[in-house]
């Protein structure tokens, strides 16, 4: 009641004031709110979004952006409920791939192709492959927003130097590094695999190094000879278990929770030397522990003997998060303007200052650390999207479940591959 | 209604009052019936209906597949493993929580007014949010930094130190321990309330007759609490069969499904693998299992009560 009375009062006051204000003064009831959900939770990343929203509000009088920032795993459930209940936010983030395509096929996502065709200058700023994860049936449903996120092996440079170690380029070198670290009672890898996706990165890299990106593509597209029982996937499982048996992972890895920083804590306390993780980890570490960030180095995933995959390939995503507009949004044109604001050059500069590089052509990165990470991604012959995001949700879950079982040594590589292939036969027709 | 019009026909002088009396129960029951209809009966019916669909929960409703989801459920090892975990949780909840709660309640009751501070302290775990508690105990169990393993090693029991949440053998037990710790205060309060109605004269008389505290407990107080114990056991069983939150926060049902419960499995089916139809089947099966087990325990305990 009182809020209503106040707004009526202010409307009256505005009406009575100078005519100059008439154009901009919006009565409270007329404000059009655009809801925006993302999973950025660090202050710097949230600020980039909020600044973009402010720019949008300045050029779109009468609109207000209600931005909501939600923790990773909670976000995945919340967005699903919102769509299921026909209460989706106007703008939402995703990783593209299988889950986004589920929404697209349910006609819940706005096709951005006509908007991008109208503004080719905007579209052509992005590196072309970055639209791959958000393309379905030749149409584009999202804009690459946050980062060019490949998984790399981060390591403690100081510790490596002290022990006379160098970043391993091959599998044998990696096993030697693991031996040395073990002999010093240091866990080679920090892994927090409760959520299962961190462990999946090892499997995806191994499969990519052994069979090349084709092995996965053929299995997904059900092409002749394509199978999740391909020797590449079975060998990937074997190599993974070879690491487990060599004691490569810190104690408790299958129960530790990445979302609460369980893996980084191992790195900070010198209990672990390396972590395979997306490049966002570097940005988090810089915010969380600037002293440790000075010791942080990275190297690409090592090659595997006899592997068909190019060791310059990376796994990850060019975009990390993609922003999309939901089909139920009442202000579609404005919402598209807002996601363009979220992915414009100013936003890109803000993210760059936070150590994250959007997949843009000719992006100028001053920070040498970020520049060298981005360089690896830009030069990669192939960027394999995370399996759990590329696959349809049911298969993606199964991939994570079977990989966690490989880590727990309770499934053989053959059995895990068989389970995947049987489910794929049902799901991918 | 027929009654009223008949009365009107013979010219009953007080029809309005009779009408009010007839309407009263309807008016008083309407809100609760309405709430039950909206929040219990309707969702229950629709989840049974959804369990017959193959649907990812987005957009157009999925296609009708009859009992295929139920057939799949019957052969789904993961579901039955989860149901087994629920039953383990129920058994251990009753065996651990109730005895400790009874002992605490009796001790606090004997201490009388001096126990006020202890009552508050013991009650605290129940007031904490499960999510905060889950994060707290994740750190407690952490094999690299956690105080539990550090304590065991400090006591020279290093070989007992385990990977509590990451090892398939321990993760369920580790979470059950926290669930018990959280819920004991609830039953303690329940039993304290039960003991409040225990007449002081009886224990005074028993003391005069030379009965020890232990005898009073076994012979008088425990039989007095029989009804409350039955309620407590039922609540513990039903609560365990529907349990979700600490498991979700601490292990997510893992590793490798070792601590999966029916409710976390349902959640995963719906929200992670986008199978709303099958998830609804799991939810409906959960409803049936909980109802059947609750019914059996009610019958069993009521027979016990009459036999004693």
Written description of the protein model:
The complex is a heterodimer of chains A (429) and B (308). Chain A is α/β, with parallel strands linked by helices. In chain A, 48% of the residues lie in helices and 14% in strands. Chain A has 2 domains: 29-146 and 320-343, Periplasmic binding protein-like II (D-Maltodextrin-Binding Protein, domain 2, 3-Layer(aba) Sandwich), CATH 3.40.190; 148-317 and 374-427, D-Maltodextrin-Binding Protein, domain 2 (3-Layer(aba) Sandwich). Chain A has 19 helices and 13 strands. In chain A, helix 18 (393-407) packs antiparallel against helix 19. Chain A is globular. Helix content of chain B is 75%, strand content 1%. In chain B, strands 1-2 form a two-stranded antiparallel ribbon. In chain B, a hairpin with an 8-residue loop joins strand 1 and strand 2. At the A-B interface, helix 3, helix 4, helix 11 and helix 18 of A face helix 6 and helix 13 of B.
Task: Offer a few descriptive terms.
A: 429 residues; alpha/beta; D-Maltodextrin-Binding Protein, domain 2; 2 domains; 5-stranded mixed sheet; 13 strands; 48% helix; B: 308 residues; mainly alpha; MetI-like fold
């Amino acid at each position: 009641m009182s809020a209503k009375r106040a707004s009526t009062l202010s409307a009256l006051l505005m009406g009575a004031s100078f005519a100059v204000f008439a154009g901009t003064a919006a009565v409270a009831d007329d404000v059009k709110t655009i809801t925006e959900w993302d999973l950025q939770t660090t202050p710097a990343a949230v600020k980039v979004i909020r600044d973009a929203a402010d720019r949008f509000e300045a050029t779109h009088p009468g609109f207000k952006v209600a931005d909501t920032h939600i923790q990773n795993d909670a976000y995945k459930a919340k967005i699903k409920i919102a769509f299921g209940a026909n209460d989706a936010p106007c703008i939402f983030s995703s990783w593209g791939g299988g889950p986004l395509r589920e929404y697209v096929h349910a006609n819940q996502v706005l096709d951005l192709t006509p908007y991008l065709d109208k503004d080719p200058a905007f579209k052509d700023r992005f590196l072309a492959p970055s639209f791959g994860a958000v393309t379905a049936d030749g149409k584009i449903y999202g804009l690459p927003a946050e980062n060019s996120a490949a998984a790399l092996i981060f390591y403690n440079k100081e510790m490596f130097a002290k022990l006379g170690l160098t970043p391993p380029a091959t599998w044998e070198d990696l096993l030697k590094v693991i031996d040395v670290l073990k002999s010093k009672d240091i866990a080679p890898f920090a892994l927090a695999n409760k959520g299962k996706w961190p462990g999946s990165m090892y499997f995806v890299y191994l499969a990519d190094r052994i069979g090349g990106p084709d092995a996965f593509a053929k299995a997904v597209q059900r092409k002749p000879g394509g199978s999740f029982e391909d020797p590449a996937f079975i060998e990937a499982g074997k190599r993974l278990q070879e690491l487990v048996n060599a004691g490569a992972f810190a104690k408790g890895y299958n129960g530790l929770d990445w979302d609460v920083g369980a893996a980084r804590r191992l790195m900070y306390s010198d209990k672990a030397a390396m972590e395979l993780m997306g490049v966002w980890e570097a940005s988090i570490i810089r915010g969380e522990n600037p002293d440790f960030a000075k010791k942080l180095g990275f190297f690409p995933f090592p090659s595997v003997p006899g592997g068909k995959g190019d060791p310059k390939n990376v796994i990850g995503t060019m975009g990390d998060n993609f922003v999309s507009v939901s089909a139920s949004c009442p202000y579609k044109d404005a919402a598209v303007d807002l996601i363009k604001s979220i992915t414009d050059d100013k936003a890109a500069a803000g993210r760059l200052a936070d150590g994250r590089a959007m997949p843009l052509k000719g992006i100028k990165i001053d920070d040498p650390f970020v520049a060298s990470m981005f360089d690896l991604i830009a030069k990669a012959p192939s960027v394999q999207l995370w399996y759990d995001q590329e696959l349809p949700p049911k298969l993606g879950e199964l991939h994570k479940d079977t990989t966690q079982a490989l880590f727990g040594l309770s499934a053989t590589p053959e059995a895990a591959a068989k389970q995947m292939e049987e489910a794929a036969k049902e799901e991918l027709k | 209604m027929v009654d009223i019009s008949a009365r009107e026909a013979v010219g009953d002088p007080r029809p309005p009052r009779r009408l009010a009396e007839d309407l009263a129960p309807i008016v008083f029951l309407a809100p609760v019936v309405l709430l039950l209809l909206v929040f219990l009966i309707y969702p229950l019916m629709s989840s049974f209906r959804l369990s017959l669909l193959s649907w990812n929960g987005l957009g157009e409703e999925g296609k009708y597949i009859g009992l295929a989801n139920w057939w799949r459920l019957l052969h789904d090892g993961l579901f039955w493993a989860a149901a087994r975990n629920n039953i383990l949780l129920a058994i251990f909840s009753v065996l651990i929580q109730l005895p400790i709660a009874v002992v605490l309640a009796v001790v606090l009751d004997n201490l009388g007014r001096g126990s006020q501070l202890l009552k508050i302290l013991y009650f605290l775990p129940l007031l904490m949010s499960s999510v905060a508690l889950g994060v707290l105990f994740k750190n407690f169990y952490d094999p690299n930094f956690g105080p539990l393993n550090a304590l065991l090693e400090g006591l020279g029991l290093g070989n007992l130190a385990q990977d509590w949440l990451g090892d398939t053998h321990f993760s369920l037990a580790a979470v059950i321990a926290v669930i018990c710790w959280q819920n004991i205060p609830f039953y303690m309060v329940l039993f304290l309330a039960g003991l409040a109605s225990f007449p002081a004269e009886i224990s005074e008389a028993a003391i005069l007759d030379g009965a020890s505290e232990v005898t009073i407990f076994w012979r008088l107080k425990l039989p007095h609490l029989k009804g409350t114990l039955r309620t407590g056991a039922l609540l513990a069983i039903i609560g365990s069969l529907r349990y979700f939150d600490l498991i979700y926060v601490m292990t997510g049902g893992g590793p490798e499904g070792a601590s999966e419960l029916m409710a976390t499995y349902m959640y995963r089916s719906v929200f992670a693998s986008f199978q709303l139809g099958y998830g609804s089947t799991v939810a409906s099966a959960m409803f049936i299992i909980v109802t059947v087990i609750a019914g059996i325990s009610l019958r069993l305990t009521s027979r016990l009560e009459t036999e004693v």
